[in-house]
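User: Structure please.
Assistant: Input sequence and predicted structure:
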Amino acid sequence: MTFKHICASSALGLSLLSSALITVQAQTAAVVQPSPAGGSEVAKWQGHWLYASEQQGLLLTDKGTLKTAVPGQFEYLAVHNNIALTYDTQVDQVQGIKLDINNMQRLPLLPKRSFQVEWLCLQPRLADGNLYAWIGDEAGRAEQWLLTSNEQWQPQLVRTMSVVMGALKCRVDSDEQLYVIDQGQGLWRYAAAPHSPDESELVTSLPGNELTGLAMVADQPVMLDESGQLYSAQGQDLASPFTQGLALESLYIAGNQTQAYSDEDGSFYLGQFDQTQLQGSHQAESPSKDIIKEIPTAVESAIADRAGDTMDDPAIWVHPTAPEKSLILGTNKRWGLLSFNMQGEQVQALGVGRVNNVDIRQGVNLGGKLRDIAVASNRDRNSLSLFELNAEGKLTQLAEQATPLTDIYGLCLYQPQADELYAFVNNKAGEVSQMALRWQGNQLTATEVRRLTVPSQPEGCVADDKQQRLFLGEENRGIWLFDLAGDTSASHPQINGEMIIQAGGPLVADIEGVALYQTDDQDYLVVSSQGNDSYLLYQSQAPYDYVGRFRIGVNAAKGFDGSAETDGLDVTTKAVGSGRWAQGMMVVQDGRNRMPDQNQNFKWVPWSEISQALELK
């Protein structure tokens, strides 16, 4: 037997060996006796073989006999620890089963789907300790479900996704990659983490194949075709444990044993598989074992009023006397500024235009009065949208102010003195204008006092009021530091910045939201690493050491997903409530809102939980 197919490599650099493979001889597989009637798939659990049967239910081998563990009409089977997942063909719903040798228990069915489930697989996640599942059909429809959290069965739809037409089987590896086979093109890979984008990649091209089975061996996909031939993920022929011509499907490999089901004679076949065969095949990079810690979403805001990339940047307003009444401001970059209470409910909406970034300073002495001021960058008119907040956080719009920039983008505020307020507003060309905000007559006016530049597009920025510094994120390159101390009275004096943190390693571009968490004991720069859906902490003093990173993840008890593809974020050290909220909080924009798929929103978590997860001092 020689190489049957020519493989097309994936973007991960998978490639075939150019030389011909050594001829291998198919072995003779034994028919499993007794073999279940009407079987479909098989798995191994605690030394027992489990079988799904459309006639007999869930069957279990015990001391050479085959016993009915759960009566029913089951098709497809996946097992992890003490959970089995199958499909009840009598009611057309996915069925979970709690495995216990003395007390097998049917778990509540998943809700009836709008499609007939034709394949399924399980996905245990080390990052959050939850168990997920993928289900789908041959028409390319797929769904990801959260099944268990804290070992409690509580099925919740995470997201829907399109996969290849003709999808037949699926498996998930430890690096959270979903593999799917079809008979038209070959082996496909999809990002399987709940926060991941819906992206596809053809790993190995096997056009016109007869693939019917897929298993994971040492974290590598192994494929089976109808004739009984096995293939590696790169399409290389492996020694087959099966007799040819049995019309086999539903491959399962456990140690050196493998089973497959013959649709031709209704029998399962048992054979031997030598895993060392995979050691010589060209492999993808080893899965990453650097698991990013996840902190469950504590609160999520009401969703945007429309689909697409809508929400962008949040800012935190702290109530002066009742911290639990604090508010989150957030930009809806299609049309205006929103505010939400600490329960995530929308409180106010002002249709002021396409505002992109927003920032707040409280207690600024302007016009002989302490005022809370919010400013947003307005892309409709390249202007500053100005707002004043009263003692309860109600927003009142002030007169809009022009800027000297075109195509404006990001913004942050700077208050070096009690009676001084500036806005830094930037554009896509890398220009940054420092605008002085002064109370004149009965309004807040804006005048440029200085111009800064970086080589390419910035957005997120934060000013350190106490030490008079500006941190500015250049999206594709890193974070700049500008020393703001000095006279700004001359005509637009230039100051040069210093690149203090470069993209790379844990910081994956785009670099988006930037904020400061500063107390007497802690002084951190918080950055949104959009490229891998995480948040990084750095020391905000030289040499700006990396401290740690985390993600905001699923909260199954509340039915909240985590956050992903974050644009803007904000943090505060002030209490926004009691208990876990006493150390402040962090709020982020969620670019992929799921559980289920919905329009974008904002997510927030207590700082105390960030501190605990990263073991901050």
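Residues 607-614 form the longest helix (8 residues).
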